[in-house]
Design brief:
globular; alpha+beta; 87 residues
Length: 87
């Protein structure tokens, strides 16, 4: 099973759609709402996002060692071998 970590904003509609994609496909994931974290955790998250993906855009999804930035269901599905990711 893939390890999935998602950095999101609690108010971001695309982040909510990304979470829904994983929930609807019964895929376990860890979601961290950047804006709800303390300042120190936010600094750590930003550093990690820049190191892994060169950006701080959300949703920022890490599937094992694959980074996918933005709401990209087809890319999530491909990374998870789920087919074409059609909604």
């Amino acid at each position: 099973m893939a390890k999935i970590v998602m950095y999101t904003l609690s108010t971001c509609p695309w982040c909510k759609k990304a979470k829904t994609f994983f929930e609807e496909n019964d895929i376990t994931f860890e979601s961290i709402d950047y804006d709800l974290e303390d300042k120190e955790s936010q600094k750590e998250i930003i550093t990690k996002m820049k190191e892994l993906g060169g950006t701080t855009a959300t949703p920022f999804v890490i599937i094992d060692d694959i980074v996918i930035v933005g709401y990209r269901p087809k890319e999530y599905a491909k990374a998870l071998n789920l087919g074409d990711g059609s909604e």
